[in-house]
Amino acid sequence: MTPILNAYFARLNWSGPTDVTLETLRALHLQHNCTIPFENLDVLLPREMQLDEQSLAEKLIGARRGGYCFEQNGVFERVLRELGFTVRSLLGRVVLSNPPSLPPRTHRLLLVEVDGEAWIADVGFGGQTLTAPIRLLADIPQQTPHGEYRLLQEGEDWILQFRHHTHWQSMYRFDLVTQHQSDYVMGNFWSAHWPQSHFRHHLLMCRHLPDGGKLTLTNFYFTHYEHGHAVEQIHCPDVASLYVLLQDRFGLGVDDAKHGISEAELARVMAAFDTHPEAGK
After folding, report:
1. Which residues contact 155 (CB under 8 A, 6 or more apart)?
2. What is the CA angle 234-238-243, rounded to 5?
3. DSSP 213-240
4. Neighbours of 85 (CB within 10 A)
5. Residue 148 phi/psi, 5° resolution?
6. Dihedral sign (CA 150, 153, 154, 158)
7. Can you give the pLDDT at residue 274?
8. Which residues lie closer than 8 Å to 10 by C-beta, 6 or more apart?
9. What share of the chain is helix, strand, coil (3-state, %, to 5)?
10. Under a CB-based contact definition with an 8 Å cutoff, are residues 168 and 77 in contact?
């Protein structure tokens, strides 16, 4: 077992299988979603996010922080490769908000081959991310621990959709073209620095739960969902309570010398939004 795998399994508190099988892929996918939170704090602080393997391991594994797609799927790709899976990253165009024209490639996802079949894995799309891999097959609804998904195919493009009540909602489009590290660096830079990027205007966090629930945060608003229904909602009254909630409910690491976050830094982030819990009531 390599050092990165030992550290990753300790981070996930993992004692499950490590063989190159679909069962291992499914189990690790869910455990990753339930342990390492999706979050965009470094965009807001702001701090530059480095996508090399050492930096990602230091932040998401060693410092017990979270991250967004370029970081989450970067770590997961490395782990799967070191376990022996055939895996590579793809880049998608996010269409969740039905943009009038196709946006740039700003979402990193994974193509994994298991026993001669192609699967899509994605631990980095926030509250709506996959929590299990799905087969790269068109027009077939596929169940995950947190909802039903399907893929459509239009020429060389694939479209990932999730079932939202009675209709299907598109999430992102992608193709299978080989990408390079420079492509991820460019997409990451756009996501973090484009003035209209939603990552620059909201504190966002999500952690899934193994029983089908999930925890989400938008600025001062925390929600605990069970099977699509809100069962707990908290409007944090101040930054101090928000700082505690990030650690207690999302497991966010804050003490690392390089990647930690102080309460004062969080206060500066929240003040920049000119947003107070009372404003959304």
Report:
1. none
2. 80
3. EEEEEETTEEEEEETTEEEEEEE-SSHH
4. 20
5. -105, 135
6. positive
7. 59
8. none
9. 35, 30, 40
10. no
Please, which pLDDT band fits residue 1 given cuts at 50, 70 and 90?
Answer: confident
User: Measured in whole angstroms, how far is the alpha carbon of residue 4 from the centre of its chain?
Assistant: 20
Rounded to whole angstroms, the Cα distance separating 4 from 193 reads 30
- Structure-model confidence comparison of residues 274 and 267, the more confident one: 267
Give the whole-angstrom CA distance, residue 278 versus residue 164.
29
Residue with tokens 């490590």, as numbered in its chain: 18
Q: Report d(CA 279, CA 275) in Å as an integer.
A: 7
pTM: 0.95
H or E stretch covering 204: strand 204-208
pLDDT tens-digit map of 41-67:
999 999 999 999 999 999 999 999 999
Burial per residue of 228-243, b for 16 or more beta-carbon CB atoms within 10 angstroms, e otherwise: eeeeeebebeebeebb
d(CA 207, CA 241): 18
Distance CA 12, CA 28 (A): 9
Token code pair at residue 69: 């797609």
> Which residues have a catalytic role annotated?
69, 107, 122
Q: Report the C-alpha gap between 137 and 92 in whole angstroms.
A: 17
**pLDDT of res. 278:** 42
Nearest to 155 by CA among 135, 173, 141, 167: 173
Looking at 167-262, list the stretches that DSSP marks H as alpha helix, in order from N- to C-terminal side.
181-193, 239-248
Residue type at position 162? F
Q: In the block, which residue shows the tokens 């700003």?
A: 106
